[in-house]
Amino acid sequence: MSITITAFEASPDRGQGLARDMRVRWALEEVGQPYDVRLVSFEEMKQLAHLALHPFGQIPTYEEDGLVLFESGAIVFHIAQHHAGLLPDDAHARARAIAWMFAALNTVEPPIVDLEQSEYAEGDKSWFEERRPMIHDRIRGRLDQLSTRLGDADWLAGGFSAGDLLMVMVLRRLEGTGILQDYPILSAYIARGEARPAYRRAFADQLAVFEASR
Which domains, and CATH codes, for the chain? Predict the structure, then answer.
């Protein structure tokens, strides 16, 4: 049975490759696995058929041979476990790469998402201008630590891994905020990820969906 993932019929990121299906697309491209994409509208995401796949009514979902998964991190982990190319063979190196997957989603991403959500959910509140610097400080604290750890290495745990894939995608969410310009090491890291052929194929496919919806 072929792999099928779900993605936005009309992505709110306007083709920038920030929607979370991009993480799964990139992972599948890295390991050379073909897949189909089923596009869903915001209305369809809240209907029972989609909720049976994703209990929170979001994207992406992953279906293969009777297996249904949700949450982009879990899907990328599954792909990495079952196909060569995203996790090292050595047990210790593999564990370190997996640790970076968790770090990307649990440590680095939350304040970045908080910044995104606060801009449109709280931007009109009288106290927003006081809160925003605190969010920026939380983000910069994590970026300081990440930049120091990466140093002059190309990737976080030896060769490119699923940890880097998720970390690059998380950091890309800061594009347009002006924060990344203070972190040349991380900007170069993102650029290395974006230069990978698998990333470019995944980005082109995601962008094509947006272009078709215009």
Answer: 3-86+198-213 (3.40.30.10), 91-196 (1.20.1050.10)
